[in-house]
Amino acid sequence: MVEASFPIVSFQNFISGSEAEKRAVAQELYNAFHTYGWIYLKDFGISADEIDEMFAASKKYFDRPLDHKMKQTLSDAETNQGYTPDGAEANGGTDHKECYEHRRFKNELCPTDEEMAGFKAFLDAFYQKCFNLSVDVLKALALIMNLDLDYFTSALQKADPQLRLLHYMPIQRSIVESEGHARIIPHTDFGLCTILFQDQVGGLEVDPFHTDEFVPATPIRGTCVINVADLLQRLSNDRLRSTMHRVTSPKLSEDQLSKIDADGMLPARYSTAFFVHPSADVDIEPIVVDGEKGAKYEKVNAGEWRTMNTAKNYSNLLGAMKAWILKRYMLLGIKIISYEFCPEMHPKFVCLIGNRTVHLHGIFVNGNKSGTTLRQPRK
Predict the structure, then answer these.
(1) Which CATH superfamily does the domain covering 8-284 fall into?
(2) What is the pTM of this model?
(3) Where are the beta strands (DSSP E) in 229-373?
(4) Helix (H, G, I), strand (E, B) or coil at 166
(5) Which has the closest alpha carbon to 14: 4, 31, 27?
(6) What residue spans define the domains of the chain?
(7) pLDDT in tens, 38-85
(8) What is the rounded CA–CA span in Å between residue 336 and residue 283?
(9) Rounded distance, CA 262 to CA 28, Å?
């Protein structure tokens, strides 16, 4: 398997350089996001030591007893904060990991100082650094796309992105070698962009050209990985690419494998992702430039988009998804709504509203599947 050769870009000159230097960095970012949808970033204002400290805090959180973590379980798709146990995500399959979601405004399900001294304060500070980085990256893209510098960041004024701590538990070699195994199944992210920090275990793989050929995005100490997500692809009218990716178990050398028997355990993996989402009241509409035939996507509301996709991804939030749909259509004056569960498309639903069929993975309207789709189909 060939390793991904994504560009490694220093962000230092965008932070403190001249206007010409800022534009040069912005051009590198744009080129990478247009071609691959991914980039390694270094010199971005968060040190390697701070990243190590974040991983130490993450490990300490996940090392707590399961019953303690379960008391703070994520249960609300709109708030989307708290703990998610192994196997609860169901994004078209089962992912083998546990997570903790930390937010900008609402963190009622964060351990208290009595439970984990300094944990919340540290995550709040790390969160803010990630938020500041996301603002600068979006300003860089606006600069090179000849937009107002705050074109994208104006959508973040009341935004509540999520900082996600992830723990992939040690796993038996026999499971890893079974057909179809994945720690996270192939997917795209559904926000604006994602900032990812990896430990040195590895396992992240990317399909940069949508050819179903995944290549490793090998961890590089002192860098983060930034990828375009679905809403930024929509906003850019496909000029920026939201790329399929997955997490597999670490690829070990033959020598390493020879020292692990069939029932032996492969190492745990930790990563941290910062998912950048717009403010809930923002409508997302493609930017159409001269020479383009028109918008490739319909306008969507960012808050509704996020709640729908969050609920869809969690097996324990399917009921919440139903409630959200009902609330939405009641607000539109539609008082009668029935649900039909679609087993072959679990965990998605088909809602029958009069003669209108709405499929929530890519919303099809006008009663047929050739209608307008809310989300780009995955290929």
Answers:
(1) B-lactam Antibiotic, Isopenicillin N Synthase; Chain (2.60.120.330)
(2) 0.79
(3) 244-247, 265-266, 269-276, 283-284, 300-301, 338-341, 349-353, 356-359
(4) strand
(5) 27
(6) 8-284
(7) 999 999 999 999 999 999 999 999 999 999 999 998 877 667 799 988
(8) 27
(9) 45
